[in-house]
Specification:
Chain lengths: ~110, ~240
């Protein structure tokens, strides 16, 4: 049977998709329920969760898919560096950092003839 | 009478959470779903299944892996394994969020249900916003935001699937870049514990290192390794300061 056949596609999505992701969330609830607000264990979990999200961020910047796959790495890193500079110099407002990064990237892509 | 007032204000906080749909992170996520529509349409997956997948598999990277497994004709066990490996990060994310949301009286079944709505966007949004919400209303606030975000994206996918159009390259490139930049700015902005800054930096550096060493498990290793190192460094620094003081 292939995935196109009606009910099997839904069963496939439910088992390989829903169950494979929600199992980790349920384990997270069980673990999180045992963590005290001010415990060192929660501090560690917080560090690991943040580092995991940071790893996803780095991957999206360093190894993008789609149009940006063709863009030079120096442009992407340069846009992030300029955006970070604006963020720290101008009152640490997320909107300023995001807008500066995206504007730099857009200008660079245009200049490179995208 | 008292409990009546309490219920009413829970509804108000649920609605406040719903309003989070009109925020930058929700907007960025919806644009990502437009991209996901074009991926699934090209893969030939019927729209009903894409809508079902959007609601059931609430993590975009997991969905992309699921679609590519379906396309390559992978077995159920192989697809389950690939999606599981990409989703381990949900466990510490949920575990870090739960102590921020619950009170002593929050039933576990409710947290188990609500955990389905935790993915990277809702996590970053909730970690930032719940601080301004009274503790006993945080569950209602998160439910309002999380459930609305999922339902809105299911509706979006059902509509957009039929009108998939490609953006001009510069627009598509900038849209893609919005996601990591928003996460970066928001986590830095909302961090209330010193360990978060260090973990963010270590995770960013560890990611390419482990991508080079072990590309299959890069995110997981960078998270556990970088996070543990960040925690150890911050603990050492804190103890040293306590001794010095």
């Amino acid at each position: 049977m292939t995935w196109q056949d009606g009910w099997w596609a839904y069963a496939f999505i439910a088992i390989a998709g829903w169950l494979a992701t929600d199992i980790w969330r349920w384990l997270g609830v069980i673990a999180g329920n045992r963590l005290r607000d001010d415990s060192e264990a929660l501090n560690w979990v917080r560090a690991v969760a943040t580092a995991l999200v940071a790893a996803v961020i780095a991957k999206l910047i360093l190894y993008p898919t789609g149009v940006l796959e063709q863009s030079p790495l120096w442009l992407r890193l340069g846009a992030v560096a300029i955006g970070a500079t604006a963020f720290f110099l101008l009152g640490r407002k997320p909107a300023i950092g995001i807008a500066t990064t995206i504007a730099t990237l857009a200008a660079g892509l245009w200049w490179l003839g995208f | 009478m008292k409990s009546d007032e309490n219920d009413q204000s829970s509804v108000v906080w649920f609605l406040t959470g719903m309003r989070g749909l009109f925020s930058l992170p929700a907007f960025i996520l919806m644009l990502s779903f437009v991209g996901f529509c074009s991926l699934t349409a090209q893969a030939g997956i019927p729209p009903e299944q894409v809508v079902f997948m959007t609601g059931m598999v609430w993590a975009l990277p997991a969905k992309v892996i699921l679609v590519s497994s379906m396309m390559s004709g992978a077995s159920l066990a192989a697809a389950f394994l690939a999606v599981s490996l990409s989703s381990v990060r949900l466990m510490p994310m949920v575990a870090a969020l739960i102590p921020e949301l619950r009170t002593a009286k929050t039933p576990t079944w409710l947290l188990l249900f609500l955990s389905h709505f935790v993915a990277i966007t809702a996590w970053v949004f909730a970690m930032e916003k719940v601080q301004a919400v009274p503790r006993e209303k945080r569950v209602a606030f998160f439910a309002g935001f999380g459930i609305t975000l999922v339902v809105a994206n299911m509706v979006l996918v059902a509509i957009v699937y039929h009108f998939v159009a490609d953006f001009p390259p510069i627009v598509a490139g900038c849209l893609f870049f919005l996601t990591p930049i928003y996460f970066l700015a928001s986590i830095w902005h909302s961090a209330r514990h010193p360990v978060v800054y260090i973990a963010l930096l270590f995770g960013l550096i560890a990611s390419p290192l482990f991508y080079w060493l072990a590309p299959e498990f890069d995110i997981l290793l960078a998270g556990v390794g970088g996070g543990t190192l960040a925690w150890a460094v911050e603990g050492l620094w804190r103890r040293r300061r306590e001794i010095g003081a």
